[in-house]
Amino acid sequence: MNITFIGGGNMATALIGGLVGSGADAREFRVVEPFPAQQDKLVGQFPGIGIFGEASAGAVDGADIAVLAVKPQQIREAAQAIARYTSDVPVVLTIAAGVRLADISRWLSGYARLVRAMPNTPALIGEGISGAFAPPEAGARGRKLAQRVLEAVGSVLWVIHEDMLDAVTGISGSGPAYVFYFLEGLEQAAQELGFSKADARTLAYATFAGTIKLAHGSELEPAILRAQVTSKGGTTERAVAILEADAVKAKFVAAVKAAAQRARELGDELGTAR
């Protein structure tokens, strides 16, 4: 499968690395990347990869899929730069947060075989999850090609309406920050209770990692699992009571919804660009 990446940053590097790790040849990839330092990094990491300083027919012609892997603020310029070369590309995948397919299609001079995805940062270690949406114009082949690319760095959850990707952004796109925030608090509490920074981090990380494995290995929902480890009159009950008294869960839900709302706002803002 021949793939052209527009943008050679962290996410593109992760996707290429995942695909190479699953058996693809680096010579199957071309990357449009304007910064020499990043070009050198890609060539060093993936010998044989094709590097282009700017969009051109040579960068795009013959691609089975083109991936717009740039920041949302850069996607209009990136899409317009390749618009003249995409007519024969089977599908274009965008991983730019918040930017809607109607706007990307407009910037691509009406090209409609598009797939939009929202990966998250654990993709950098092959443990991500991507929400994805494919309109009918993408076709079965386009959806399959996009899924193959995204699965190189984790799992894929397809949504039936594009606006659900804003919710995906609030939940899993921004989600790693919520986990890090929780870890910060657990680590701080451990230090205030007398542990060294190193030991506090060991306790916090191991607790979180082990609990996730426990949840994955159970068919029970989180509320039941929590109840099972919350003995009446015990230490966990007292801790949870503090969280409930401050409505921490409700505030957390509100925070996720706020992130989803901001994703919608960004779509509105970025979509005004002509």
**Count of DSSP E strands?**
8
CATH architecture call of the largest domain = 3-Layer(aba) Sandwich
What is the arithmetic mean of pLDDT? 95
Distance between the termini: 32 Å
Superfamily at the CATH H level of the largest domain?
NAD(P)-binding Rossmann-like Domain
**Domain module tally:** 2
CATH third-tier fold name of the largest domain:
Rossmann fold
Structural class, by secondary structure, is alpha/beta
| Spatial order of strands in the largest sheet | 3-2-1-4-5-6-7-8
Helix amount, in percent? 40-55%
Relative strand content: 5-15%
How many helical elements?
A: 12
What does it look like?
The mean pLDDT is 95. Helix 7 (164-173) packs across helix 12 (248-271). 52% of the residues lie in helices and 12% in strands. The protein folds into 2 domains: 3-162, NAD(P)-binding Rossmann-like Domain (Rossmann fold, 3-Layer(aba) Sandwich); 175-263, Orthogonal Bundle (ProC C-terminal domain-like fold). An 8-stranded mixed beta sheet has the order 3-2-1-4-5-6-7-8, sandwiched between helices. The chain contains 12 helices and 8 strands. It starts with a strand and ends with a helix. The protein is α/β, with parallel strands linked by helices and 274 residues long.
